[in-house]
Amino acid sequence: MFEALSTRLNGVFDKLRRRGALSEADVTEALREVRVALLEADVALPVARDLIAKVRERAVGVEVIRSVSPAQQVIKIVNDALVEALGGGEGAEAPGLDLNAPSPVPILMVGLQGSGKTTTSGKIALRLRTRDKKKVLLASLDVARPAAQLQLQTLATQAGVMSLPIVPGQSPLEIAARAMDMARRELFDVVILDTAGRLSIDDALMSEVAAVKAATKPHQTLLVVDAMTGQDAVNTARNFQDRVGVNGIVMTRVDGDARGGAALSMRATTGAPIRLLGAGEKLDALEDFHPDRIASRILGMGDIVSLVERAAETIDRDEAEKLAAKMKKGTFDLEDFASQLKQVGKMGNLSGILGMLPGMGAMKAQIGNAKIDDKMVGRQAAIISSMTAKEKRNPDIIKASRKKRIASGAGVTVQDVNRLLKQFDDMSAMMKRMNKLGQKGLMRGGLG
Ligand code: GDP
């Protein structure tokens, strides 16, 4: 459901990444475009405004990590702000349902008619039975629509769980009491109470749902909203939150082409987390809502985000700065190359990472995508460590006989040694070019 937003944001960040250094004007322009993209995706105005303000504030104060580009850091900051808007980040609740309560755990399903409430009840029941091995009871409190209770009964059969026997003429409160009673007697783990919906918010509906809630004290009151209704879903949620009180949101029809903004506004507007997503009509089309995964789906740049995270965690700052200074002075030798490789090696699996590191793009292009792995880094480190100190400082003296000695010392072929020397040559040449440009490519003193 986030395709359009994702495409827009990708465009903004592509532009940003083509610049080596970022001026304040670049960042401001990019954020302006991010804001427009959010609004076009139907994110509520105050939510978009807050998000941009947060990103700007953090971008200004950010410490530059030398091993990643400023644009990548901006992307990471936007990503973190998105994760927070989606209800994730530090201190957030675990994704999915919260069933941490004494059995039988009552779950109350509320929402407008047609939002997917009954289908979602069936989906949750199926998942709890099959994945979590729970004994689940389904009960429909919808006495307004004659077919509603039968519909839930059919879904229960499909999900392989019990449904409360239908007794005509009972009120929603009576049905709820009977369901809880049966669940206690027959030792059910979870009772899912599906309430009646209306086509739009009305007082009678709200009072009915509030009364059921007061009587059953549900551990989770889940509001089901249709993602396709965009901003209306957010308004519905605000209403339910004010008048009934919910502690979780299920967003359905995310398999459609909804613009996704509602998902981004939901947390800020209601305070309740989106817990689950409905992604189809079938009973197994239910997903936990992971703010971090959704954010990287929106940005389409999960690789960059984790790169920046890992770089910040593992790259030795002093070491990186020493190397950068040597690059600048043109005294970078094979010893330094080895220590750069070690830093890269620390970041774990390398596919796709090398090309993003400043100065390593050329190397990656040479080696080709497929062969970049930890083994290769190890082999290269072994080659370099088979060299004498003099050779490392002066690679030019490494001719045929030295190559043979180094190769056998490292347990590789002479071609491997040649390849490494060629990479080092290319890299030195590139650094000289960079130095001629006066290191304009690196931004100094923060991103702001
Ligand atoms: P209720 O009135 O809120 O109980 O809504 P229903 O559960 O009866 O769902 C209304 C319609 O939406 C049904 O045709 C469902 O199959 C369909 N539906 C429910 N959830 C989803 C979903 O996640 N994706 C899609 N594509 N359809 C859904």
From TrEMBL:
Location(s), subcellular: Cell inner membrane; Cytoplasm
Lineage: Bacteria, Pseudomonadati, Pseudomonadota, Alphaproteobacteria, Acetobacterales
Top-rank taxon, per record: Bacteria
Listed GO MF terms: 7S RNA binding; GTP binding; GTPase activity
Gene this chain is encoded by: ffh
Function: Involved in targeting and insertion of nascent membrane proteins into the cytoplasmic membrane. Binds to the hydrophobic signal sequence of the ribosome-nascent chain (RNC) as it emerges from the ribosomes. The SRP-RNC complex is then targeted to the cytoplasmic membrane where it interacts with the SRP receptor FtsY. Interaction with FtsY leads to the transfer of the RNC complex to the Sec translocase for insertion into the membrane, the hydrolysis of GTP by both Ffh and FtsY, and the dissociation of the SRP-FtsY complex into the individual components.
Membrane topology: Peripheral membrane protein
UniProt protein name: Signal recognition particle protein
Location (main, coarse): membrane
This protein's record includes keyword RNA-binding: yes
Any one cellular-component term (Gene Ontology): plasma membrane
SRP54-type proteins GTP-binding domain boundaries: 273-286
